[in-house]
Each structure stands twice: as structure tokens, then as C-alpha cells.
């Protein structure tokens, strides 16, 4: 039993290794030194406090975005709408911070902003959920459409109600900020903030809901087999909507992390942040488990921070994209790994 | 403006912007009808757009003149098909989760093309402009027909007709030929097809390759009729819209075409809206989101449930029960 | 003499199991050769080898004396071998004709010549009395017709040797008799048939020879004319079989389920159940007999809340439960063994343990204040697994990995353990072997003995006749008669099921 | 300051002697055919003219996401022994420049297109409304239909300067002309650019001025299509000389260029000579040739060019102050009557 589970977890690990090897080959072909590149990335991300801190800054929304996608997947739903939910959550948190009296203590302010993001992102997830439950509209289309609606609507709201020079909202008051002098000093001036605690709590919450509560049992049952769930007396439609709400809420909190931690304001966005799409990859890399999502996010963030180092070596940063894509491919095609392993076993071990 | 004047602006423009979506959505139909989900349409369009730009420039360079964009379309279809084989290998041979593999295609396409653009054009993030585009024309004779002439035969690119004709061709192929029957059979019930001696993997490879060809074509058409060069942001979301059009159109080529035209129409309507006096007072955000809201309303209101091909997304493993 | 088919010493392994172990099968031209064996004996596997879907590890195959290597169904087809699979291989959304011609379509300039195809189908259909509608979509036709489509598929390809894998499991007695006729017609036209079944009666009726397989090994081939059914049965199982029969005295109690004038629409908005009335009393098994598709599924769905009733009333212990949500109905005391165990009965990706609390997970002691208590769930699962002899490596094994029989036992354990006032058992033994059937029948009878009501819906007439206290015959959404099993023959029941009233006028002839 | 990788393994040490300058692009990247590219061209010219070494003495870092701005700036603070002057290109980087500058008081920064008030930051802004006014004069005089189009990318304060300056220029020379204004909501939606251009030309406009980045590609495309069919339509390009974008149909009437390159080169020179202009806001307008018409303007007749020069003088000597915002435009219109 245990060994079986272990080998299941080996698949992403091997995929990551294969992806890095493939990336190395591309670098070699293009005339770069992969050892130096990976060495620099490692050195930067793990040994240089500033970049470690910045990596964490990237990790935070990524974990939450990955959780959002993974949660939906567990409930049998495909949420491509994280981008939109994230924008709405971002705006909801920043708007709340700006509208509440700045003098409120942090213990009220920050939870209030995060709750606003949960509600905002949740509603943005709720709508496709409702449309699917009520009208059987395919969630892939609605979530794509909702992304664009979120992009334009949040921009318009910022322009109309929260505009500050520089095409953004004003800064949130310090009482709503997740940043701290302690982390700033610890990481030599990076933007690392307490959102990492929020993200980790998010991971625990997802694990707890799905695996420890009867509601989670229901959500998973509906995800795997709606017919049997209906037979067993579960309200399939309500669960579908709830799953989408929770998924959207995670995405919304991811947005809040940008607003309360990374930037302290919201910009008028010309395009999507990309965090939602990365979240899909992270969720799949992490086999839709909380812990896996955390590991996947670390890998992604490390590679993204590493881009800065690669640029300094003159390696086009798009190579990182390619490596990430290859890793995803290898994870997806995990059968290739099993297949190879079985081949090797057959050759090596002979008949049982 | 009179209604006719508005339509004369809106309809040709809707058809033009719908064209890449139609082509790509048709590709999606092929792939999903064969049982392979293709989230990677965006990536296939990116590849096509890249090839469309690079090869038009190359062909112009070697003196092929006005034929350049047309030949580039051909190359884009071929390379698109070749690139999509990655998705095919992963999801058919190696039983990958097809959604994941599609997402990987999207990442990979963007990474590789931008990387190559930089390699090819001295560090530049985008290609130069192409000189020879596929232009919008007035179809001789036909554009003089009253009413429909100005709407459907003026200010239109031949690629749009090609896309529309292709939609009918794909429909014909899928529903009237033995190839189509076989392709659909492996998407509905691969085991049944297998027992009748149909090579499930081969049909699925073909389905995916055709989606690559059409997706590549879609991306290239976008470049040679609209964008005129290629950069990282040239294709941003069009592939996802094509995916939506395919689902909206219920996996039917003609439905997909209708949905893509609907998207195009909604967008051009929202653009012309700003010039129509009584719509002018509406804040522009409403017009910006109108196409997406309309789509959702249309789906919820009268399109309703659509059933995907039954075996779509499920790897076929011989002999598994 | 040359055999039309000779399979010599076939061995086929699956990971961890030898499905066929040195099996030899010899079929003579123009005969119906039965292949008999328990569930999992290896019958389908052997035929899949013959049909080119599996490659054997060992052994040789001869067709009409020629040694052949059948590496794909195409080659099997070229050799004149056709197979009607146990699970129909039909594409729902295609028409009958499309299903038949798929893979060898008549074309004209690349276009399928659908006119020619339909004509060919019609001709074949008439020639063998198969009576199918070439235009109909497969999802709209009856199971019996679907099977005839499967037969046509093989004939269309010019098959000389037809393999039927458990063709009667899903048919009504009438349809079975039709099928037997068709098979006899086919052999009289010179074709040879291999018939897989575990029904001895059928073998006696049509087969010439019978090869018995047990646990992957060939036990022997006998002339059917010389063999007693009991002999075949013990060859198959390796021991003697007792059939369960309802022999205890019948003392019905109060009405548990009362259905009054119930009308239910099917997915196409047609009344599948048509002002139907029925009562089930405590201490009785009420069997519902009927040809598949006469409203049985919709009736059950309406009772259990899975489908809305259009009109009428459903009362449980005198209390109205019409239009209630499934959960309320379950809690009111109805348990349900669903006819499709994969679709409704189990979440295949959950462990078998978690499946054991599918309807009760939210109640104490399995969950308190919304938090699951895994120790309690595990205890319950272990108890049920033991009590009902569910063979599974562990409580944590995914339900998917269990065999069909064991999956069914798990569902029955779960449902009976809830001690329901009314147990609805829909096709509880479909596709199971005699051992498993015996077990399940005993459980149903126990329910009755404990004073509970059982509503048994089955297409197996034997099952209905052996277990029921009363038999309600359903036809076109109505109960057209209620009879006592001791006072009716199988033939009479068959007539009723076809809509013919026993006494008096023939109202519903067709 | 104490943060980051100080990269001292590379040559380091002689920081005082060798002047090093670098820039961080916004997400548009160094080849956006717009201000990032222009800035990099300026920096390259400076580097070559002064014999600096690419990638060590002068370099750029590209930002892939908005969240890269800060780490990229910080990297340059320490990379290769630290750069003396670091440019942040684009208003999107305002906040990042402000923060990093505050944390690194010994490094000099410059921001293009926005203002950061700090001792060690030089702000470079352009008077886009002045250049736009001049191309507005061109359009106002040359239109045959009295309909002119303006296509914007995102509706931002910056792009509003283009719009209002342009409209003011048009109205100054041709009060009867009507300016159709439309924003695409994106700088990268060529299809929308084309659709808007189609709509504006379709409504009779014969000249369109775009300030919409790659969205403008669609505007050019539409114009080229129409020109090919014999319509006499024009596009006015933006940011740099967009002559090439209009070829081969030659639809570029002129472009409103913004000499980010000159500004970057000039500031780099000054800084190398010890004058960092710290805390100053350097505004480049017509006077400094920071904005203006591109060299390609062959299709503009002399009388129009003369008028343009007249207005240029008036703007330079302050007789005319082209409006930046909607409110200023309203006032400007009123003053015309
Ligand atoms: N594809 C497969 N992979 C692994 N094991 C298999 C496979 N197919 C069959 N088996 C196993 O091989 C054995 C023989 O199966 P087979 O289907 O031939 O039995 P059968 O005699 O047809 O039974 P039934 O009466 O239930 O149809 C069973 O134990 C079955 O579980
Ligand atoms: N495709 C497959 N791959 C792996 N194992 C399989 C496969 N099919 C069946 N099995 C295994 O083979 C065994 C028997 O399966 P099968 O469905 O034939 O059982 P069955 O004959 O219906 O059993 P029962 O006697 O309980 O009715 C089970 O343990 C099942 O898990
Ligand atoms: Mg079985
Ligand atoms: Mg079988």
C-alpha cells in the first residue's frame, strides 16, 4: 500500500527531472551552459535571502490559485476562471481596505479584507457553478467569459471609484498590509509578506474540507459520480455550486494576497496576471492535493525567479516557459514513466 | 446612421474577426469528435501565428510576392499539425490527462515561439511587419447585389470564405463520409470501433493532427489578415474563445461556425455601439463586456445542454473494461 | 474431419491471473457449440482471443484446418469470424445502419452511400427475420433489437462463424425464444455458432455440443443430447448447487408501499409510467415482471425520488413521500439496490469502505458536527464486508478494483444493513454466477422473513417465479395483472408481459 | 543597503571609475516597437558611443509580469557590482521605482512616463499633448471628409493626453471636423484595432491617429486594405516613426514620435559626467525635440507643414497650451470660440 503511494508521488518528481533535463538539452543546443544556469537559479532562489523572499512572494498567490483549480478538479469541475476570480478578489480586498477606516487594528482589517476577497472570488465562481447546475452550461465556456468580464469590470470600477495616479488604486493603509519589517529585514528587503501563512492555511483548509468533513466527502462523491451521489441523497446541483464557490474563494484570496501583500494596491490590468493559468499547471503537477500544490508552487516560483538569473546569463527567459511546459507534459504523460519502468523491470527482473 | 449602414460596417468586420476562430474551432471539433479533448487550441494558434508571420516574411524575402501569405498559411497548417502531434503522443499513446497535456501545449507554444523569434530576429520580441497581407476585397460582381452585396461580398477576405466553406466541408466529412463515421465512432465508443477493425489510435492521431492543422491555419490567418506581425501577445485568448465556440456550437462544425460568427458579431456590435448616439451614453465597460455577457446569456437562455462526444477525454486502453 | 474452428492449448494471462490455461476448443461446421462456465471462468477471454482482441501467450488456432494468426478483429473478420459481445458494442448516437456498416462502408466517391447501405441492411434483416429499423438511432431501440443489430453487424461482414457472448442475459423470454429461432436459422444456412452462457436450459434447448471451462481450465466437451443439466452444472461449478426457492408460508402484513395512479415521464417527456397503482405489504416479496423498457426504471426512480412524478401519490407506511428528495425518502425507510451498479450504486473511485456509508456518512456515528469519523466508518465497513462475504483485499481498496459480484454484494450489504421497511431490488443478480445468485436470493428471503417488504424488479423470470409471493406484470407503464407464482406458468407470464391478458379478450395485441 | 546578491565575483571594485547604466522594461519587453524599444535604442547608442561593454556596463532586464519590476530593479542595484543609473521604463513601474529607490539611496534611478519624487530619482516625462496637437493640426487640415478617428489602447491618463492634444489640434484648424474617439481596452488586440478602424473609416473618417500599441497594427492593416482598394485613407502613427508599419501601401501620414531614446541617452550622458538630475522632473516637449512629427511626412503638403511650424512656435513660446485632460480640453474648446 505504502510503496504504491510512494511510487505515485515519484511520478511528478521524475517528470520534473525529465523536464529539467530536456531544458538542459535545449540550452546546450542553443549554446548555453545548463549547469551554470541551474546552479545560478539554485544559488539565487535558495541561498540568497532577497530572492528567496521574492520567490515566496510568487509562491503565495500561486498556491492559492493552484488550490482553487485542484479543489474544483476534486469536485469534478474544471475552473479556467481563476484569473477572473483572482481579479475580483484582488479588487474586493483592496476596496475593503480603502473603504474601512484606516485606523482599524490589523486583526480586524486584514480578516475583513480577506473575507471580502473570499466573497468576491466566490461569487465569481458561483456564477458559472449556478449556470452549470441550473442550465447545464459547460463551465469551461462560462469561466472563460467570466475572466474577460472580470478584467474589464474591475478596471472600470478602479477608474470610476478608486483611481489614483499611475493607473491604479491608492495604496491601502498599513493596517491592511500583510508586509512586515521583520520579513523585510529577514529577506534583505524583499516583498515577502505574511500571506505565506494565509496560503498555507488555505492548503490545510482545502485538505481538511475535502478529507475530513462530511461535506468534503459529498463534494468528492459528486465530483466522481454525480449519478451515484444523487442516488445517495446528495444535492448534486447545490454541491456543484458550492464547489465552484469555494474554488472561486481560493482564487479570490490569491488576489487578496496581491493587494494586501505584494503590491498594496491594485493596478488597472491590461491583461490577465497569468497566475490563474499557472494555477492549472501547479494543481496538475501537485496531483490535485494540497501538499502537491505547495510543492508545485515552489517549483514554479523558483523557476520564475530563476528567470532573472538566466537573463543575467543572457539566456532568453522564454526558455523557462519551455521547461515548465515540458515538466507539465511529463507529468501528464506519467504513463510514459510507468511504461518505461515496467519495460526496465521486465528486462532486468525476468519472470516473477 | 441607418441600420443598413451599421450592418455594412458590423457584418464584414464580424466575419473577419470570426474567421480565425471558425478555423480553430473546426480543429477542435475534429479533435474532440475523435475523443481527444484539446485545451491546447490556444497554443496551436500561437504556433500558426508565428509560422504565418515568419514564413510570409521568408517567402517575401525570396521573392514570392503576393503568394507569400498564402504559402505561409499552408506551412502553418503543416507545422501546426506536426506540433499537435505532441499532444497526440502524450494523450493517445501515453494516456496523458488530456487537459493537462493541452495546458502544456499552450505553455510550450508561447515559450518556443517567443524564444525562436528572439533567435531569428536579433533579439527582437516580435517579427517585422509582413508586406503582403491577405486583403479584404470586394468580390467582383457579387458585391453589387443590393443588400447582401454590401453585407457579405464587400470588404471581406477570401480566407473568410475559405473558413466558411471549410465549415461545410468538415460537416460533410464528419457526417457523410466513412472517414467521418469512423472518426466519430472512436470518439463515442472506441471499443466498438476497435472490434470492427478501426484503428482507434490512428483515427485519434488524425483527429488531433487535423486540429493542429486547422488551429495553425487559424493562427496564421489571424496574422496575415489582422495582426500583420507576431509577438508574444498576438494571440491572447483567441484559442480559448475558439474552444468556447466549439462547445457553444455543440461539437458541430456548423454550430461552431455559428458560434464564432456570434462572437465576432457581438464584438463588432459593441465597437459600433460607441458610435450609435443612443448607446453612446452607456459607459464603455458595458460595451467591452457585452460580447462575453451575450455569450453567457445565449448559452443559458436557449442553447442549453450540450453533450460532448462520450469518450472524449478518456484514453483508450485496449481490452480494458 | 476438419473443424471449422479449432483452438489448441490456448493460454492467456493477465497480470496476476491466468484467464485461460491450456484450453482446447473444437467446433464443427454447422453446429451450435456452447461454452459454459462460471463468472470469470475465462469464456470471454477465450473468445476475445479467437476474435483477435487478445494475443494468447501459447496455443494455436486453426480455421477450417488452416493454421492462422489472428492479430486483430480485421483478420478475424476476413476469416469469417464475427462476435456479438457480452457488453454491446454499439454507438448510441449512430443509427442502426451506421452501426452495422461502420468499418466497411459502401461509398460512392468518398461519400457513404447510405441508400445502398440501408438496402443491404434491410435485405439481411429480412433474410434472417431480424426485423430491425435501419433508420432508428440505437439509443432509441430496445435491448432486443440492439442485439439483433449486433448480429447483423457480423452477418453484414459475411461471418460464417458467429460468437455469441452471453446473448440472453438481457433478453425477455420471448426475445430469448426469438433468438433461439434465429440461431437455428443461422446454422441451417450453414453457419456455425459458439454460444457462451451459464444458463443450462438454453444449452439444452439449442446447443449440439458443450465445452465446460472452470477457472481458466477446460473441463471437457460433451454432447448436449447425452448430458443431464445437473451434470453440466457440477462440471461448471465443481460442486452441487441448491437453488433458493421461496418456501416459507406467506403471511403478509400491513401495506408498506402504496402507489396510487402514478404517472412518470421519461427523459423524452413521454409517460413511461401511466397511472399505475400498486401496493407492497410487509412480509412479502412483490415481483415485478415485464419486458425491459416498460416503465420499470422510471417507476423505481419515482419511488426513490430520482425522478419527479408527473401525477399520483406514493405512500410509505401511510405517509406521503411523493416528490420528496432522495435523502428524505431514504431516511423514511426505503433502501434501493440499483439496476446499474456502476452508475448509481457505487462511487468507483472511493474505497470500498467509504462506499459502505454512501447514504449515511453525514449521520452519527460516522460524522459529528460535520467532521467524519473514520474509525467508525472503517468498523462499519469491516463488519459488512465480513457479514456479506465481500471479497476485497482491504477496506481501503477502491471499489473499482472489485469484481462485479463483489461490488454487488457490497451494495446489498449496505442497503440491507440499513434495515429498511422497503427494499427495492432492481436486477439484483444480473450477470452474476450461480454462487453469487444463491447468496443474494437468500438475503432477499431473509428480509421477507423479518417482516420487511421487498419490491423485486427483474428480467429473469426464474428469479421472479422462485422468490415472489405475488407477481405484478408491468406493460407499457401499467400493471396489467397481478398473479400468484404457483398459479402461473412461465409461458403465461410471457404472454402477459407481451400485453396479452390471460383470461378474456386480447386487448393489447401486437 | 544590505540586500541581495552583490555579484562581486565579477570584475567589481572599480565601480567609481566605470560608469554603468541599465534599464528594466515593463511587460512590453525591449522590442515592443514602442517606448521600451526606444529607450533601449537610446541606451545602446550611449553605450556604443562611449565604448561601454554590453551586458556588463550597459544592459536591460525584461519583466514578464508586473511582479518582476521590483526584483529586476533590485537585481540591477547589485548585479555586476551595481549600476550607477537604472531606468524604469513606463508608468507601470512607478511604485517599484519609488520603493527600490527608497531602499537604495546610493543608487540613482530614472523613471520614464511618470513622476517619482525622491532625491535619487529623475523623472522623465513627455508632453505628448504637444506632439499630438501638431498631428491634430495635420489631420484637421488634411481631412476631406471632416471626420477623423482616434483609437486609444487603455483609457489611461497618459493616453488621454494624446487624445485631448490631438482633438485640440484638429479643432484649432478645422472646427467643423468631427473626431471619433474609441478605446480598445487593450494594447495588444489587433483584431479590435482593425474592427474599430473599420468602423471609423466606415463612418467616413479618412485619417486615424492611434495611440494603442500593438492594437494599432489592426488600424494600419485596415487602412492598408482600404488604400489598396483605392480609398484615400491615412494613419498617424505613434511613439516612433511608424512608416514601416504602413508599407508597402504607404498609409502612414506621419507619426507622433516620442524621443524616449534621446531622453535616455541625454540623461545617461549627464549622469556619466556627474549630473544625475536627482529629484528633477525632466519634461520633454516640442522645445527639446522630445516629441514631434516623424521624419517621414512626405505626404503632408508644404502649406500644412507651414501651419504646423506656426503652431509649434506658438506652443513653444507658450501662446497655446494644448490640453491634457478632458476638463482642459473643454476649456480649450471654449477658448477657441
Ligand atoms: N483485460 C483484463 N485484464 C485483467 N484481467 C482480466 C481482463 N479480462 C478478463 N480478466 C480476468 O480474466 C478472468 C476471465 O475473465 P472472462 O471475462 O474471460 O470471464 P468470463 O468467463 O467471460 O466471465 P463472465 O461470465 O463474468 O463473463 C477473470 O478473472 C477476469 O477478471
Ligand atoms: N481490466 C481489468 N484490469 C485489471 N483487473 C481486472 C480487469 N477486469 C477485471 N479485473 C479483475 O478481475 C477480477 C474479476 O473481474 P470480473 O469483473 O470478471 O468479475 P466477475 O467474474 O464478475 O466476478 P464475480 O464472480 O464476483 O461475479 C476482479 O478482481 C477485477 O478487479
Ligand atoms: Mg464477470
Ligand atoms: Mg464474459
UniProtKB/TrEMBL annotation, chain A:
One of its GO terms (cellular component) is plasma membrane. Keywords: Cell membrane, Membrane, Transmembrane, Transmembrane helix. It is found in: Cell membrane. InterPro entries: ABC_transp_permease. It comes from Pullulanibacillus camelliae. Pfam families: BPD_transp_2. Its main location: membrane. The chain crosses the membrane at residues 9-30, 50-73, 85-102, 108-127, 192-210, 240-263, 275-299, 319-337. It is a multi-pass membrane protein. This is ABC transporter permease. GO terms for molecular function: transmembrane transporter activity.
From TrEMBL, chain B:
The chain crosses the membrane at residues 6-31, 43-64, 70-92, 99-117, 156-175, 205-224, 285-303. It is a multi-pass membrane protein. GO terms for cellular component: plasma membrane. It holds the Pfam family BPD_transp_2. It is found in: Cell membrane. This is ABC transporter permease. The keyword Transmembrane applies. Keywords: Cell membrane, Membrane, Transmembrane, Transmembrane helix. GO terms for molecular function: transmembrane transporter activity.
TrEMBL record, chain C:
Belongs to the ABC transporter superfamily. InterPro entries: AAA+_ATPase, ABC_carbohydrate_import_ATPase, ABC_transporter-like_ATP-bd, ABC_transporter-like_CS, P-loop_NTPase. The keyword Cell division does not apply. This is ABC transporter ATP-binding protein. Keywords: ATP-binding, Cell membrane, Membrane, Nucleotide-binding, Repeat, Translocase, Transport. The keyword Lipid biosynthesis does not apply. Its main location: membrane. SUPFAM superfamilies: P-loop containing nucleoside triphosphate hydrolases (SSF52540). It comes from the Bacteria. One of its GO terms (molecular function) is ATP hydrolysis activity. GO terms for cellular component: plasma membrane. PROSITE patterns: ABC_TRANSPORTER_1, ABC_TRANSPORTER_2. It is a peripheral membrane protein. It is found in: Cell membrane. Residues 5-240, 257-501 form the ABC transporter domain.
